[in-house]
């Protein structure tokens, strides 16, 4: 879903204060260059992640939405420069929406990210593999959400992801081992949700 820092409460508070200082400074200069704009966006996303760690969901979403708004505007003008930032911002905000139980909003962001990364992955697996596989996993987890419970859809997404990750894993074990295991465990969990225990055990044995 979203990369969460492993920090204690006081460390997170200190990190938030630092991120706010960076945000205030880069906000004054974000129109000067792409570099300053991206530093400003990093500060916004860091604050979103830190607030998420503190379970301050509204603050986390506010900062992530602001980051996406700026990135989206730049993406429309220069897709080559901003596609990676746009996809990562969609992933982050989608995960935050899911945490806050805004499932319809999460689906919207994840499906936009999927449309983009699917095409890019087909053209360059090495560069876009991580984002594409993360989007697929996030989509599968949304299908498993209690109010949705489209377990067959989740299984199909995990199977699709597994085909992709197995091919990548064969080429480079070290780079893709974590994604491979995560995918197997996700598929196993989906099988359990569908009362297919034998298939679940098989996936866990491989993992």
Q: Helical percent range?
A: over 70%
In percent terms, what proportion of residues is strand?
A: under 5%
The count of helical stretches stands at 9
What is the structural class? mainly alpha
Number of strands: 0
Low-confidence stretches: 1-5
Largest sheet: none
> What is the typical, i.e. mean, pLDDT?
86
Distance from N terminus to C terminus (CA atoms, Å) equals 20 Å
Give the helices and strands as they follow along the chain: HHHHHHHHH
Topology:
Layout: H1 9-29, H2 34-53, H3 57-77, H4 79-99, H5 103-123, H6 125-143, H7 151-171, H8 173-193, H9 197-206
Structure description:
With 207 residues, this protein is mainly alpha-helical. It has 9 helices and no strands. The longest helix has 21 residues, at 9-29. It is globular, with a radius of gyration of 18 Å. The model is unreliable at 1-5 (pLDDT under 50).
């Amino acid at each position: 879903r979203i990369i969460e820092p492993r920090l204690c409460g006081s460390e997170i508070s200190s990190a938030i204060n630092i991120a706010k200082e960076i945000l205030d400074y880069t906000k004054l200069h974000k129109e000067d260059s792409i570099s300053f704009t991206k530093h400003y966006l990093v500060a916004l996303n860091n604050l979103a992640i830190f607030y998420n760690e503190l379970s301050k969901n509204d603050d986390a979403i506010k900062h992530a939405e602001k980051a996406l708004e700026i990135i989206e505007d730049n993406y429309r003008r220069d897709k080559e420069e901003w596609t990676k930032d746009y996809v990562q911002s969609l992933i982050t905000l989608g995960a935050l929406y899911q945490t806050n139980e805004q499932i319809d909003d999460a689906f919207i962001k994840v499906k936009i990210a999927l449309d983009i990364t699917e095409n890019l992955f087909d053209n360059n697996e090495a560069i876009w593999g991580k984002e594409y596989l993360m989007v697929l996993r996030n989509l599968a987890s949304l299908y498993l959400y209690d109010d949705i419970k489209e377990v067959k859809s989740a299984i199909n997404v995990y199977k699709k992801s597994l085909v992709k990750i197995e091919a990548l894993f064969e080429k480079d074990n070290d780079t893709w081992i974590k994604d491979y295991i995560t995918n197997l465990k996700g598929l196993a969990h989906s099988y359990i949700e569908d009362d297919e225990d034998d298939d679940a055990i098989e996936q866990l044995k491989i993992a």
